Recover the amino acids of this structure.
């Protein structure tokens, strides 16, 4: 049986406003419990919500960025249920009239192809507080600092067909919200949360299978694992004669499995109705026009520009445009050294490895874009070889010089390009290895290839890596030919 | 001193006939002496009142003037008063000392009023008899075996018994106007959005409005002017300047066009009340008004629509009362669900629980369209009726209630029969227009009220008509015997 | 549209109102009487009528994004039934 996976994602992005969506409390992460919970946030009797203009603006920016319909009016609705982290006993959200309607986001897959993922809607709502389950003598502790933080819930169409596509989509949303400056995308802190709706169906079947929802998966890696695990679970279940139950599940990264959540609300009836404390929100066309004019260059446009302006492959262009910071970094390097291809290679290669190794973000890079660009310039003008450059790079990273030139100078890493000097060095090498020279001259083409490498190695050793490799090759060949 | 109206008190204080402290002390003693018969107060804030009175006297000595400077009032117990028990007449708010002041309270404090205490009310404003309070029923000073009306029953009883000159109340389906009618007072529910709801604990958010109860239209004008105004903390508050209600009082009524809805004078109305209403019409005609028959064809559907919308909104508004952050918590909850269910079951009274359940049902899956949505469509029909009517008339006049004050306990067996008492008042809340009730005489020694309804933001006009009527009548001056 | 007791139990649960066996019949009867009143709405022709959610058909005002609330945890928690280390305590929440 051939199976097809169908995935829809609901992403909650915490908007990076100063104050909460309906109250003027701070939204800073990590404050002492309940020190950022005002009367409104606590759901005190008699309190009322007033809508944060910035949350509206950010939601509209997102809508424009995904080419979505943005309705003239949107309405807040109450989602009623009881839970200790929900002080009013209802969450103010949006139901029938969300602020952002249908849109789409293009994602680049590993093979370089671009796939369009539909976005059904995005709406504003308030976040709930947090339950701390550490024991307070059999009690749980509730912190309402987070209650009232603005969320943008982004709902995708069930257009996603694999865990990898899902990750690409989440990464694209992550990049987009950071590009727009509306969310910091910090999944570890919960600024970006992902719920995955997963189902399977026999290939070719039109109907969707029953889906399970995996809630609150908080890293790209876990998203991939959780989905893969869930797909496996569902297929095995069905093949064993069972039925997939529509339910909410949690991913346990330690056990790498999903488990059914002890249901919060069983089959809940949320009794949505328009919130009578809030009025319909009007979005004027002029407001949208102004907002559109001020949108920064977005990932799809940047990717296209990188492809055309810098002649990069689609894949390279999408990697480099994945985040605004990375794209900006790359462009400074490219400008400084005048060679986009080299810049791309170094950024995606050595720099990337360095950052990953030490778990650093691009804006924490120990090597600045100017430093890297300056170094690549020295490769281009033959001051150093590619190999030596790696050493220079490491030195820069260790803070051993303010510029590549400084390091090259300090450590005497300048490439030797004087053919006279190289010849002299080579003569010494050949003289020191007379036997091997004999052997070489006596061997055929095939054997020579291998032996040639030996001499190159010796030459590099003798010159402490500083001899220009191209010249070494050329001159060595000549000398060995005899 | 207790016979004086707010306006008279203002003049007396200005003339230094007595101080606010003296007046306050005198009323506090009166409350102590007489309120046990009425049970109109839940909390008497004697110490704070005297402090406020002294402060007001000091402000006056420093040269400040102001119609409400040093005026004694009290607040219906759903207005949050910082540091003072705010109970909404419910056990579930036991121990709830409000951590802030309602905007109405803040504004009146700023104007220099002296708060004597918090007034009894139907639990969470749900009721028309003030019999559902956790703190016991309130008695009508005109006949203490009868109800004073509700939900602002405590406000009405206290003012009618001259325990204080005026009080704040709230009106969601008639809860200012109906008790005013049953206790011989003037009370006004302003246009929706006119008075801030910040700190006014919600029953039905799209229907609730705060307003004054007093013995005269002039006093209502004084108090409403200070209560009203835009508040940025309330999204439903209207950003429109407050009219000069006092100045509007003296406008002559010549040319006033009064509408009499034919639907008002049908089978359900006590004929004797009908007579009193027509007598008022005659008096107003003598003052220069003209009268026209009009129709409000959808009026009869107002009660079912109200009893869907109000409970629906209330069912959601009251979910925050869960024993977690404030108020009553049941003892030894064995788990979370037990905490919720028992705290709410023990904390809420029967009528509140009924309405929460009706509201929950009306919003539940499968019933939303047939109940909630349907009710909102009827709501629009009712509004349309008024919009049409006000094209031809300036005010709509009729009885405030279909019956006189009934006996305590009489309607307990059948809550629906109490709901039907709201027939004249409810439409104003659904449409959001202002409504006023004023004294119109007595039947069997019990007060009768006449209701005036006006177009949006026509509070001034309603107060004007009432004031002019009160210049040629003296029902409003009569006091219940024994008080 | 009369309610059966199972529906009444469901409604009570949704509203987190404890309802004892003993109360159930009376509560069911009273609710049905209220619903009887409400059901008269069905006779009204509301075809083509837009629902009215707010009496004054105005629109939502927006607030500038600024933090103006200070920490008042002590004052607000002074009236709480159970707090510890700044947290509100409830019977253990099991996920």
């Amino acid at each position: 049986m051939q199976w097809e996976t169908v995935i829809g994602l609901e992403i909650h992005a915490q908007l990076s406003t100063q104050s909460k969506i309906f109250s003027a409390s701070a939204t800073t992460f990590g404050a002492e419990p309940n020190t950022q919970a005002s009367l409104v946030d606590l759901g005190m009797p008699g309190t009322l919500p007033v809508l944060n203009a910035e949350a509206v603006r950010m939601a509209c920016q997102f809508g424009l960025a995904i080419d979505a319909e943005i309705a003239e009016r949107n309405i807040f609705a109450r989602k009623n249920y009881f839970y200790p982290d929900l002080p009013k006993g209802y969450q103010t959200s949006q139901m029938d009239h969300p602020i952002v309607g249908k849109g789409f986001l293009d994602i680049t897959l590993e093979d370089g192809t671009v796939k369009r993922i539909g976005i059904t809607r995005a709406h504003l709502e308030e976040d709930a507080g947090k339950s701390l389950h550490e024991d307070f003598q059999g009690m749980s502790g509730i912190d309402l600092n987070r209650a009232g933080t603005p969320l943008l819930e982004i709902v995708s169409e069930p257009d996603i067909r694999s865990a990898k596509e899902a990750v690409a989509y989440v990464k694209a949303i992550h990049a987009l919200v950071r590009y727009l400056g509306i969310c910091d995308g910090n999944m570890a802190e919960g600024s970006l949360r992902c719920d995955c709706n997963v189902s399977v169906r026999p290939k070719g079947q039109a109907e969707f299978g029953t889906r399970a929802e995996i809630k609150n998966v908080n890293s790209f890696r876990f998203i991939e694992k959780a989905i893969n695990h869930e797909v496996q679970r569902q297929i095995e279940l069905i093949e064993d004669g069972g039925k997939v139950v529509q339910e909410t599940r949690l991913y346990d990264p330690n056990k790498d499995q999903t488990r059914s959540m002890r249901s919060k609300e069983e089959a809940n009836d949320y009794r949505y109705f328009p919130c009578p404390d809030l009025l319909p929100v009007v979005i004027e066309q002029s407001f949208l026009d102004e907002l559109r004019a001020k949108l920064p260059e977005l990932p799809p446009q940047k990717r296209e520009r990188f492809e055309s302006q810098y002649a990069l492959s689609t894949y390279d262009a999408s990697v480099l445009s994945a985040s605004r910071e990375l794209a900006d970094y790359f462009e400074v390097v490219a400008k400084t050294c005048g060679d986009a291809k080299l810049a791309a290679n170094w950024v995606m290669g050595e720099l990337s490895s360095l950052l990953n190794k030490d778990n650093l973000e691009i804006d924490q890079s120990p090597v600045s874009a100017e430093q890297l660009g300056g170094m690549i310039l020295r490769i281009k003008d033959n001051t150093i070889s590619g190999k030596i450059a790696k050493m220079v790079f490491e030195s820069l990273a260790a803070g051993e010089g303010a510029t590549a030139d400084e390091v090259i100078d300090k450590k005497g890493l300048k490439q030797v390009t004087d053919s006279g000097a190289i010849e002299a060095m080579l003569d010494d090498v050949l003289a020191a290895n007379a036997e091997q020279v004999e052997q070489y001259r006596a061997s055929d083409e095939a054997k020579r290839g291998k032996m040639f490498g030996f001499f190159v190695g010796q030459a590099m050793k003798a010159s402490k890596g500083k001899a220009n490799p191209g010249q070494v090759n050329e001159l060595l060949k000549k000398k060995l030919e005899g | 001193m207790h016979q004086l109206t707010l306006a008279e008190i203002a003049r007396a204080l200005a003339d230094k006939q007595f101080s606010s402290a003296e007046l306050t002390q005198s009323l506090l003693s009166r409350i102590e002496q007489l309120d046990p018969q009425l049970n109109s107060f839940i909390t008497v804030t004697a110490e704070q009142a005297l402090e406020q009175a002294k402060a007001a006297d000091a402000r006056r000595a420093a040269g400040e003037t102001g119609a409400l400077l040093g005026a004694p009032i009290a607040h219906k117990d759903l207005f949050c008063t910082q540091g003072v028990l705010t109970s909404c007449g419910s056990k579930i708010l036991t121990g709830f000392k409000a951590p802030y002041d309602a905007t109405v309270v803040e504004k009146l404090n700023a104007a220099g009023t002296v708060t004597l205490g918090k007034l009894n009310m139907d639990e969470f404003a749900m009721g028309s008899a003030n019999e559902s309070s956790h703190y016991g029923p309130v008695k009508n000073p005109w006949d203490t075996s009868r109800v004073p009306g509700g939900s602002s029953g405590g406000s009405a009883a206290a003012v009618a018994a001259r325990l204080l000159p005026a009080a704040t109340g709230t009106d969601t389906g008639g809860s200012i106007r109906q008790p005013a009618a049953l206790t011989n007072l003037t009370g006004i529910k302003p246009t929706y959005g006119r008075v801030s709801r910040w700190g006014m604990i919600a029953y039905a958010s799209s229907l609730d409005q705060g307003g004054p109860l007093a013995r005269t239209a002039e006093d209502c004008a004084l108090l409403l002017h200070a209560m009203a105004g835009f508040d940025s903390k309330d999204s439903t508050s209207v950003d429109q300047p407050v009219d000069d209600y006092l100045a509007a009082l003296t406008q002559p009524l010549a040319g006033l066009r009064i509408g009499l809805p034919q639907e008002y004078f049908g089978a359900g109305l006590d004929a004797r009340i009908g007579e009193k209403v027509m007598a008022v019409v005659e008096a107003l005609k003598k003052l220069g008004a003209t009268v026209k028959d009009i129709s409000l064809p959808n009026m009869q559907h107002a009660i079912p629509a109200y009893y869907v919308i109000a409970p629906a909104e209330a069912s959601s508004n009251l979910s925050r009362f869960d024993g977690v952050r404030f108020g009553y918590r049941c003892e030894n909850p064995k788990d979370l669900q037990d905490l919720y269910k028992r705290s709410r079951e023990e904390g809420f009274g029967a009528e509140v629980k009924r309405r929460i359940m009706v509201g929950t049902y009306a919003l539940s899956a499968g019933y939303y369209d047939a109940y909630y949505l349907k009710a909102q469509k009827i709501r629009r029909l009712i509004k349309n009726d008024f919009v049409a009517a006000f094209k031809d008339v300036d005010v709509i006049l009729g009885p405030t209630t279909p019956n006189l004050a009934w006996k305590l306990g009489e309607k307990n067996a059948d809550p629906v029969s109490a709901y039907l008492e709201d027939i004249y008042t409810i439409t104003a809340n659904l449409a959001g227009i202002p409504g006023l009730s004023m004294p119109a005489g007595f039947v069997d020694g019990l007060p009768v009220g006449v209701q005036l309804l006006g177009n949006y933001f026509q509070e001034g006009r309603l107060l004007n008509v009432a004031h002019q009527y009160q210049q040629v009548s003296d029902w409003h001056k009569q006091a219940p015997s024994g008080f | 549209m009369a309610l059966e007791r199972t529906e009444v139990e469901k409604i009570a649960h949704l509203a987190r109102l404890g309802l004892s066996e003993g109360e159930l019949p009376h509560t069911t009867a009273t609710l049905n009487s209220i619903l009887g009143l409400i059901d008269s709405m069905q006779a009204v022709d509301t075809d083509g009528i837009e629902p009215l959610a707010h009496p004054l058909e105005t629109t939502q005002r927006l607030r500038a994004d600024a933090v103006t609330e200070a920490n008042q945890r002590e004052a607000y928690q002074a009236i709480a039934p159970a707090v510890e280390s700044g947290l509100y305590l409830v019977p253990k929440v099991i996920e």
